[in-house]
Known about the structure:
single chain, alpha/beta, Rossmann fold, Pantoate--beta-alanine Ligase, Chain: A,domain 2, 2 domains, globular, binds adenosine monophosphate
Amino acid sequence: MRVIADIHKMQSQAGRWLRQGIRVVLVPTMGCLHAGHLSLIQRARREAGRKGVVVVSIYVNPTQFGPKEDFDRYPRDLKADLALCRKAGVSTVFAPTDQAMYPGGSKERFDTYVVAAHLSQIMEGHSRPTHFQGVTTVVAKLFNLVRPVVAVFGAKDWQQAVILKRMVADLNFPVQMIISPIVREPDGLALSSRNRYLSPGQRGQATVLWRSLQHARKRVRHGGVGAARLRSEVGQLVHEQPDARLDYVEFFDGETLVPVKTVHRGTHMALAAFVGRTRLIDNGRL
Ligand code: AMP
């Protein structure tokens, strides 16, 4: 396995792969890898085939964190990540530095952003106003540096996946986008690098996101339910947890993110909640 930190080395390697007709599959991550990431890597290996290469990028991207968010304390463990990648059959890890990605610092010399004008404003974007422009910009940069033919993202970040698919379509990136299913703990909690912030008591309460999804699924099994009503039921469920606070819950078309007034089977639900200081998200098709 090769580890590349230098962006010019990455770009020349990508050029060689392209000229040799080698299929490159990219899995972008922020590191601190868990079984959710590994499922993306497995999917990427299948896509790459025997002759292709899987590139995992590990980069905690500063521009997708708000000023009051957890950029500084976001967990980083490159050594453990490299061991996991090696074991998972990754060909190349691309782990660039901030200085290389945003020369002179992201607020000074860097001036060009990719922005999904409307989709980036709702739900996660409402709570985290500059988050998605950081995501779309860094993924566009990674696509230019690695030049993958396929990129694999997780359904865990559903809105991110929809926005990135839209970016690829709108800007004609020659990349096939694959969205891989959410990997969960046995009690339903979606795996996340941020779960390690939770105290044992909070960890128990954190299953309320999964229980809310299951509640909504049950409620719509036999017909439509008003979105406002379901929203207040989910609010109540979350409220019952002493350390949890609902940020938002939305019901919408899974492809377009357009909200619905009446929730049916097949409607998509997404929610975000704080458990203590930790902000967790989850989503699913009902
Ligand atoms: P992150 O390192 O959190 O930025 O995530 C990198 C990629 O892994 C994103 O495409 C996420 O959607 C995906 N991912 C994170 N957690 C999970 C999970 N529990 N199941 C599936 N994919 C995930």
